[in-house]
Every structure is written in structure tokens, then in C-alpha cells.
Amino acid sequence: MTAGFLAGRVRCVGEHLPGGIMKLFRLALISGAVFGCLTGCTYSDPPSPAVTPHTDSPSSPSLDPSMTPMILQGKFESQAFVTSGLATIRVSETGAVLQLDDFSTGSGENLRLMLSPGTLSPSDKGEPGLSSTSLIDLGPLNEGPSQRLEMDIKMWSAIQTPVRSVVVFNYADKVAYGTANLTELQPEAGSGL
Fold first, then answer.
1. Which of 18, 40, 63, 170 has a CA that sits 20 to 30 A from residue 191's CA?
2. What 3-state DSSP class applies to 99?
3. CB–CB of 121/169 below 8 Å?
């Protein structure tokens, strides 16, 4: 029925084509329709489930690589405004704490603390810039030379990329005031981080 219907349509459309071309066109169209109908009726086995080795739940804090106890630390470098101070992130089994010490920066309407997988380095033009445009917003920046921001295990483990810098970002103007590139420090013996 479908092939006859299509052949009739081809006849109407192809009235002005030479006979040989019309026959080839009709044959190709009918072959395509038959092939399409047969393809839709063929049976294929459902895919076999992939065999994966058994592992413990990834939500387990002890197995989450982002929860490995460590200390990340770096000094702020100025970008759009003079920014100085020390940024320290202490990661433990219960989460992470970002501590800013001796911190100062320019004033702005909507300054925020951000984490980035990128680092501050010279651009092609020689100006300092982040090597990644990805920023993770931790919230508004408070006033004062010393600040502490706690991130619980859920918040810290939700960060999908390695944290390589802390950025002071003016959200209103979309400009970085300063960035602290982080390096991993070895915890002092017996410090418990």
C-alpha cells in the first residue's frame, strides 16, 4: 500500500522527467521504502549489561579523592586593584575551611570569593590573567583582614575540578581584583591539619 501510494506520488511529481530517469527514481524510492519498513521490523537482542567491578559507594567520604586531608596555600597577587594577604584551605574528612589572613583589597559593590581550577599567569599580552574562565562562587567577601569560610563535606566534594586558586572577584564589574595561586603544603607532624 505504501509503495503504491509513493509510486503514484512519484508519477505526479515526475511527469516531466524523461522515462529512464523516472524509472530509476521510482525504483530508488520504492527500494528505500521497503528497506525502511523491513528495518523497523527486525529484532535485535537488548544490549548485555556491562560488567563492572564492585566498588564501595562514591559518596563515602573516606573514598572521595577530594576529601584527602591536605593544606593548600598561596599569597594574593594584585590584578584590577591592589590585593594582598594569605589564603589557606585546610581540607579534612569533614569538609574544608578557607582562611584569609592579613587580607586587603580594593572596595567594590559586589565583591565575592571564588575558587578556580586555573592559575594566575601572564597572558599573551604579558598581563596577569586566569588560565581558566571557570569560577566557583563561595559567596560575598566580608570586610576585615581576617576571614574564615567553612565548607561542609557536601559542598567541598561537589566541586568537580581541582582547586588551584582563590579569586577576589567583583561580580558587578566582572573583573578579578586579585588571585592567590595555591600550592599543596605538607602538614606538620602531629598537627592533625
1. 63
2. strand
3. no
